[in-house]
Amino acid sequence: MSVPVRAARPADIPAMVDLLKRDADRRHACDPALWSLAPDAPARIAEALAAALSDAPQPIRQTWLLAETGDRPVGLAHVLHVPVPPIYLGADGPPGLTMPEIALAPDAPDATLDSLADAAETALREGGARLLLATQVGDPPCAPAWSAAFARRGYAPLTLYLSKTGLASARPERPPEGPRPAGAADIPGLVALSAAHRATLEGLDPFWRRHPDADARFEAWMRRSLTLADRDMRVGGPAEDVAGYLVAQPASRLHVPPAHDLSPIGVIDDFHHRDLADPESLANGGRGALALLQAGEAAFAARSVDTAFVVCPAAWRSKAALLAAAGYRTAMTWSIRRGFG
């Protein structure tokens, strides 16, 4: 028998804080270095919920769902509609994403998980989502029980977020030789290399179908990124023959729930190198790509950022292998479900 699920209201916040703090404690127990708890975690959770459940305009459309037995909350789920990055076509519109905040009370009825999953998918479909994504945090034994439930619904890995901690404590005395800070003269090379990267991505999965104006949009974003003080851009090779690039930037709440400290975590995105051109096998032993990755790690260490997430398509096996050899492990997975009805 299903468990009733409804949209959460501001009056539900105290009970929701308890459920979410318990869920954050579970993540922290599995990996204290990655999922460090903010000293004022309950207050941060309450603040995030108050903002999300207010009548104020939201930057991203989101919904919190609450499962109840009688008048007692026994579980919750968080869903939102993810904006499509401007370099991709997004023909199916913004995908619907079930966030990692699916939390169950210890004595929740057995049907609670499926009831929440049904309600999450229904809310996203009614909001216009034609593609569904779900976030799994951790690998067994740290993955929550609902990860298997979503796999049974036909979700398959799309994007991996691989993590490595201890960057600040292992800070090198000098940056790796070879890679260097990016400059305006590198932009044409970055755009050309990104075009090859995007073509490979589209071949791996139609989710990454390119926008016709992708080159111009990517160039505009790279030029803007050069002006942002909160990130570091690194390139390999001379400006006339750029061999690789990455952007080391702050993490966001799209990756880290509010109970956890965001400040020591960074994200390496837009990471590509010619060594990774073949998604099945590394070229040149991955030496150039590894040096570039280490330059990104050194940039984080210089900012006292101790943990890095690196975004990696699940089907890009050569990149995943390089990261695994460099000490990274899967900390989070975005999985996709197509053909739902």
UniProtKB/TrEMBL annotation:
Organism of derivation: Albimonas pacifica
Protein name in the entry: Uncharacterized protein
Highest taxon of the lineage: Bacteria
